[in-house]
Design brief:
28% strand; 5-stranded antiparallel β-sheet; single chain; alpha+beta
C-alpha cells in the first residue's frame, strides 16, 4: 500500500484508501481489542508483502523499508517504551546501514522524476522530455510511469522512447491513458518498460514521450522513473 498519499511516487498503488505510513505501522498494536486471555495467544507480528506490482527486488525493498524496521520494533519493544519520535531519531542514524547493505528504501517522493502541467502539453500530439541521467546507474530493467494527479483532462500517451546521448536505445510503443483509474489489475498501461544494456556513466539519458491532452490541456501529473539493476544488492540509487 501507499506510504504517504495517492501520489507518493511508488509503483504499488492498488487504489486502496488506506495509507500505511511509517508512523501508522509503528503504532500498530497486534493486541488491540483482545482480552487478556486472548493476548496470551499472540506469538508475534508479521508484515505482509503482496507482489502484485513490485516484482523486482529493488521495488520490494522500497516498499518494505524502512517500514519493516517499524514492524520489528512492534515485536520486540515493550509497549510502554515505544515512542515514535525517538524511533524516528534512531531511524535517521540507521539509514546509512541500509545504504551500506545496498538496500533501497522509501524516501519522500519515491520514484518521481518530473511532472507535467497545462503549459507542457497541447491537444495535438507533441513531446514531453525528461532527463533521467541520475536515475540510470547500471544495466537493468527501467520503467517510466505517468500518473495523473488533477485536472479536467487526462494525458494520452502514444509511445515512449529511452534515449542515450540523443539516440534511441529502447522504445515501448503501446498506447495508453494516464487517468484516475489505478485498479488492482496487474496490467498498468501507463507504465512503459525498457532494458538498459550498455550503461555509460558519462552519457545523458532522456525519456521522450509522444503525448497530448485528451480533450483539453487542464492536466497535471507526475512522471516516475525507476531502474532495477540486474544484480540486486550490488548498486543502489544515489539521492
Amino acid at each position: 500500500m501507499t506510504q504517504a498519499d495517492r501520489n507518493d511516487g511508488t509503483m504499488t498503488d492498488l487504489a486502496y484508501p488506506q495509507i500505511n505510513s511509517l508512523k501508522r505501522v509503528y503504532e500498530f498494536d497486534p493486541s488491540a481489542g483482545l482480552s487478556p486471555a486472548e493476548d496470551q495467544l499472540v506469538l508475534g507480528v508479521q508484515g505482509n508483502m503482496w507482489t502484485a506490482l513490485a516484482q523486482d527486488i529493488k521495488d520490494l525493498n522500497v516498499q518494505n523499508f524502512p517500514r519493516l524496521l517499524a514492524v520489528a520494533e512492534i515485536g520486540w519493544a515493550a509497549k510502554s517504551a515505544k515512542d515514535y519520535t525517538a524511533f524516528s531519531h534512531r531511524l535517521d542514524a540507521n539509514l546509512p546501514r541500509l545504504d551500506s547493505l545496498r538496500i533501497d528504501y522509501y524516501r519522500p517522493g519515491g520514484y518521481i522524476a518530473g511532472s507535467w502541467a497545462p503549459n507542457d502539453i497541447k491537444e495535438t500530439y507533441g513531446f514531453l522530455t525528461f532527463d533521467v541521467s541520475r536515475k540510470i546507474y547500471d544495466n537493468g530493467r527501467a520503467q517510466a510511469g505517468f500518473f495523473f494527479v488533477e485536472g479536467k483532462n487526462f494525458l494520452e500517451i502514444d509511445a515512449v522512447q529511452l534515449l542515450q546521448d540523443g539516440q534511441v536505445i529502447a522504445e515501448d510503443g503501446h498506447h495508453a491513458l494516464a487517468d484516475k483509474f489505478r485498479g488492482t489489475s496487474k496490467i498498468k498501461p501507463f507504465y512503459y518498460n525498457f532494458t538498459v544494456t550498455n550503461y555509460n556513466p558519462q552519457s545523458k539519458y532522456e525519456i521522450k514521450a509522444r503525448v497530448r491532452g485528451a480533450g483539453g490541456v487542464d492536466s497535471k501529473g507526475n512522471f516516475t522513473f525507476n531502474l532495477s539493476p540486474n544484480r540486486p544488492f550490488d548498486k543502489i540509487e544515489k539521492k
